[in-house]
Design a protein that fits this description.
The protein has 238 residues and is mostly helical. It is built from 11 helices and no strands. The protein has 2 domains: 49 residues, Arc Repressor Mutant, subunit A (Orthogonal Bundle); 186 residues, Tetracycline Repressor, domain 2. Helix 1 packs across helix 2.
């Protein structure tokens, strides 16, 4: 694709993003975007096809900014602490860019997610896999990732829909910690825990640690045996 076209596309996306930020989804009309970017309607249709595809491209544009901030977050020796920081970054991004966030998450529909959306989920799964590697995960990586994403997105959309002066400042932290308690286990079993709860949590975390350790590794098992082992480990984790 010629450099000029890439430059035009970037200019259009920047103009659309600015309109979205100032006026929400309804402000992003092809006429308004064309006027702001200094391009004619045929150029917009050639680049994006229609308004819905333009909005999808703007959502992707927003995802790229979010992913860049997640990459800058880095990692430490504390995978659960890293997940906490990732949660806070996610919520903070949504509250600082609400129009982008609603476009990215508030208009969900079944279908193939964008590459950026898939990368965001992959990064979350990598964070949770590190918790499993440390023997601290109580459920499967996939289920834990779905729980974190569902709770984080739901919370952020709720906060966006609430007037700033009416928001509970502790709600995000309380929700985050509730989810963490549901998917992770303490390093040491609680002596005051109800009978049977300690060993169950330990078995679940060990099962998921083994599942994560074997992922992608060359082990002397047939394909059918690997499927059966994965089923057993997931059952123990539940």
């Amino acid at each position: 694709m010629p450099t000029e076209t890439l430059s035009t596309r970037d200019r259009v996306l920047r103009a659309a993003a600015d309109l979205l930020t100032k006026g929400g989804r309804e402000a992003v009309s092809t006429r308004a975007v064309g006027a702001a970017a200094g391009v004619q309607a045929p150029t917009l249709y050639r680049l994006f096809g229609d308004k819905e595809r333009l909005l999808a491209a703007v959502a992707h544009y927003g995802f790229e900014e979010y992913l860049a901030s997640k990459v800058r977050l880095g990692r430490t020796d504390d995978p659960i602490g890293d997940l906490r920081r990732g949660w806070d970054l996610h919520v903070g991004f949504g509250l600082s860019r609400p129009a982008f966030y609603v476009l990215m998450y508030g208009d969900a529909h079944p279908g193939e997610p964008s590459p950026a959306a898939r990368q965001a989920v992959s990064m979350l799964e990598q964070m949770i896999t590190r918790i499993a590697d440390a023997g601290r995960l109580k459920t499967s990586v996939d289920r834990a990732a779905r729980m974190v994403q569902a709770a984080g997105v739901g919370l952020t959309l709720h906060l966006i829909a609430t007037e700033p002066d009416e928001r509970d400042p502790e709600l995000s932290t309380a929700t985050r910690e509730a989810v963490l308690r549901a998917i992770t286990t303490e390093e040491a079993m609680d002596a005051d825990a109800p009978p049977g709860s300690g060993p169950s949590a330990e078995v679940a975390s060990r099962a998921m640690a083994l599942h994560a350790a074997l992922e992608g590794k060359d082990v002397p098992l047939s394909a059918a045996e690997r499927v059966l082992l994965a089923e057993w480990l997931n059952r123990l984790a539940r």
